[in-house]
Write a structure and sequence with these properties.
Glutaredoxin; alpha+beta; single chain; five-stranded mixed beta sheet
Length: about 160
């Protein structure tokens, strides 16, 4: 696939082509492309005169980065102690049934991805999940399915 690097150039310009802004640059790339594509990492390496291997090292060290595409809706399901005790396992089963994917996977249409995380810091709302930075708490398997179905409908409307 031939890629236009205009967006990457805008991100690099925004951060003044400074090596010390690498994490901020990668965060903006992640927001734009929902992962860190290899060709873009190579492009950034050339632009900042940083070996791509070093950039990949940063990309794999920090949990917020992904080298594989994430869904338009990124679901982070908490499996910390409070959420686990309150039934996060049943929530995961509901997500798997609704989307037919497991943690670490993305739907074929790239609409949803799901990951289990150690703690979201929303223990008072257990069990909880975050979808694109929006926190959902006091969940049941049925509530999770309703949320996903609503997002599917919104995605279909946006596609039209």
């Amino acid at each position: 696939m031939e890629r236009n690097f205009q967006k990457v150039e805008e991100i690099l310009q925004k951060h003044g082509y400074k090596k010390e802004n690498l994490i901020r640059i990668l965060l903006d790339v992640q927001r734009q492309y929902r992962h860190l594509p290899e060709d873009i990492v190579n492009y950034i390496g050339v632009a900042l005169q940083i070996p791509p291997a070093k950039i990949f090292g940063v990309g794999t060290f920090y949990a917020q980065f992904s080298l594989k595409p994430k869904g338009e809706y990124t679901i982070l399901l908490c499996d910390g102690t409070a959420c686990h005790m309150e039934g996060s396992t049943a929530l995961l089963k509901a997500i798997e049934e609704e989307l037919n994917i497991k943690p670490g996977e993305v739907t074929k249409d790239l609409m949803f991805s799901v990951d289990q995380v150690g703690c979201l810091g929303a223990c008072a709302l257990a069990p909880a999940m975050v979808i694109n930075e929006e926190v959902y708490g006091n969940l049941t398997p049925e509530k999770v399915k309703q949320i996903i179905r609503r997002l599917k409908e919104e995605g279909e409307k946006d596609a039209q």
